[in-house]
Amino acid sequence: MVSGKGGTGKTTVAAALALALAEEGRRTLLVEVEGRQGIAQLFETEPLPYEERRIAIGPGGGEVFALAIDAERALLDYLQMFYKLGGAGRALRRIGAIDFATTIAPGLRDVLLTGKACEAVRRRGQDGRWAYDAVIMDAPPTGRIARFLGVHHEVAGLARVGPVHHQAQAVMRVLKSAETAVHLVTLLEEMPVQETADGIAELRAAGLPVGVVAVNMVRPPVLAAPPRPEGDPAALAEALARAGLGGAAGLAGPLLAEGREYAARLALEAAQRAELAGLGLPVHELPLLAEGVDLAGLYRLARLLREQRW
Amino acid sequence: MSPTSPTGQASPANTTDIADIADIADITDITDEVPRLPVDPLLDDPGTRIVVCCGAGGVGKTTTAAALGLRAAERGRRVVVLTIDPARRLAQSMGLGELDNVPRPVPGTDPAAGGELFAMMLDMKRTFDEIVEAHADPARARAILDNPFYQSLSAGFAGTQEYMAMEKLGQLAARGEWDLIVVDTPPSRSALDFLDAPQRLGSFLDGRFIRVLTAPAKAGGRAGRKVMSLGMAGLQLFTGTLGKVLGTALLRDVQTFVAAMDTMFGGFRTRADATYRLLQAPGTAFLVVAAPERDALREAAYFVERLAADRMPLAGLVLNRVHASAAARLSAERALAAAEILDPAGPAAAGPAGDAGGAGGAPGAPGAKNLAPGGIVDHSRGQDRLRSARPSPEPHPPADAPPTPRTPQTAETTEDPRRPAQPEEAADRQDTDGLAAGLLRVHAERMRQVARESRMRARFTAVHPRVPMVEVAALPGDVHDLAGLRAIGERLASGAD
Ligand SMILES: Nc1ncnc2c1ncn2[C@@H]1O[C@H](COP(=O)(O)OP(=O)(O)OP(=O)(O)O)[C@@H](O)[C@H]1O
Ligand SMILES: Nc1ncnc2c1ncn2[C@@H]1O[C@H](COP(=O)(O)OP(=O)(O)OP(=O)(O)O)[C@@H](O)[C@H]1O
Ligand SMILES: [Mg+2]
Ligand SMILES: [Mg+2]
């Protein structure tokens, strides 16, 4: 599971992880649950149907499959599977029940989404091997993740009997097992770091396994050491002139000011790093790609993840 | 490029003029045609009753709302700010330590102009509970509040927060105690959710399905007749199936909930509609907040189009966390070239340039190799010549030395200090050179960011050239106290720079 504050790079990191884990001869499945086709955009393919299909070969030579889960379709599948509803399924849809169940009934939607992913986790091929060596979910943001994963608890309580109850319990077993890890993506900024700390506390309280913290969009240091703010403008201007820059006197002041801002930012980042280090989890960093994440950038991130051995 | 350069004798004033004209011509395309968002007049106008800050997640909606509220109050208005999920430290410094769902005065607001600032943090469950308590008799209210289905619903399915934000806005407006209400919007990915979610909740509460569920409780009603027309067999299949799928206990909870809520349904829709109309009223001003990034600006564009379609009054776009440079005339390329001269062994290729390289293996190694062999002085001259030989990329003469006259000068400054070669002086100079190189690299990174941001901005303005805009500079740190909010307020009123 890859979660994190909105916009920190959950989709990107989940995709890079699916690529990274696809070793020679292995298969990974990348699952999207929010119906936004973020994976298709990232891999520059057309929108994914509700069906597992191969979208890439990882840098290690394995295959990456992707699936965009549609909660409404997942519900109809379940009804079909358990009750052979046939036409009644359509009737339910017409009357708004499917809509109701997938958007309103507490967590049923989330149950279906994680249920589908867990089905893929437990699936075996005809040769008896796991269908996928790893299933990576681009999960909802930190603010919702504990609830999203814990919803089976709630549902097992609400629907005290029946197939949904059993299903919820089975999913909960997978989610709480040592085979599951919730990774949290963050930036070196106050709010995402705070949200990460809160999310970890919530996940731990719910007995859900937390994996690593992925610090994304880390700006590589431009300076070995931050410039001393008390730099002498005159000496600096001389140095700038030595490098052949005209109007050096006018540049020294603004450059020093930028240097001070840079140092302030480094200090803030250091404070956030310290905060993250105190969470008691492995912390990995991924660099900011200057021109955004295209397919090549995604593979680059995947290689970095492989080097970091997540 | 400038015709006066080759002679080197043109008066500086003259050079500047020409360069400036070129400069202005360049900028006119992007800036001048975009109207400036007049923030102070908007806040001061007694006709402005509601300001709504919308935008994609994390762009600065809460910060902007709080800063506008503070500024309006300190300019003399009686203001309430409705914030949603503010950062903890900001909440504390606004006196929002407790979540009691009512506005509190913000300590530290300057009362000199006669205004006042109140702030509150939305508690959506509490707001929902309050509606129930206000519209049902105590016994019925208790039954609803204790219902497990209600508890899940109010604790937040997608849309509850948006609905409750609108509800709270309606309540605040109805109280008539403030002459300006500034509304923050929930941290949803899409700005449109704020407008769509309440409708969704409304249509659920009014939905056919819920009517069917209510039917057994009140078979004589219109909904009941509808169900009858489905046929009894159909109904049994239907509830039976639902019972099996959801578990009969859950279905019972839902049914009791719906029955208990029934008297309130009309109320929900009426209230949502009323608030919606409030948003269309002329006293309302929408501010779309965006960061100068692709996704955020795309959201902003959608939102602008949607407001127009819904006939809701857009005041303009706040482009937040924009970067600028006081040394903008020194380009990233030239800064990096100069840094390499001063400190060839520095982390040149580890900078942002290295990152753009994509999948191409170890970043930095080739660049570093190229730099290493050159001696400092040789290199310096080589670079100088190189630069003299090509047209100057920047229009501003002070940084971009006209080649002919300046080159000898530069050579002097380059060589003169080197002759004495006192050990400690040399060490000092090395220090300074290292500092200068570092600052130049910092500057190069900054300039790249400035360029990226202005490209993003240009994309938006090309499509929406008539949307008034104001740029708010990125502060070096987070905004978490009134001083920070005032600084943002200043920038909102005057624009970046
Ligand atoms: N390492 C990186 N370097 C540069 N840009 C990045 C990096 N990681 C992510 N991005 C960019 O940041 C933006 C947000 O990333 P992404 O969509 O993965 O985040 P998310 O957490 O999934 O967002 P949401 O909460 O909206 O689902 C995208 O434009 C993405 O290309
Ligand atoms: N101009 C600015 N300069 C520096 N930091 C800023 C600026 N504007 C906002 N921030 C910081 O950016 C972070 C996000 O801002 P804010 O909480 O206002 O965003 P938001 O749009 O309300 O986010 P959400 O969608 O999560 O509610 C905060 O830490 C805030 O202090
Ligand atoms: Mg995403
Ligand atoms: Mg906010």
From TrEMBL, chain B:
Residues 365-375 have a biased composition (Low complexity). Residues 378-387, 415-432 have a biased composition (Basic and acidic residues). Residues 354-364 have a biased composition (Gly residues). GO terms for molecular function: ATP binding; ATP hydrolysis activity. Transmembrane segments: none annotated. It comes from the Bacteria. Residues 48-323 form the ArsA/GET3 Anion-transporting ATPase-like domain. Residues 348-434 are annotated as: Disordered. This is ArsA family ATPase. Residues 392-406 have a biased composition (Pro residues).
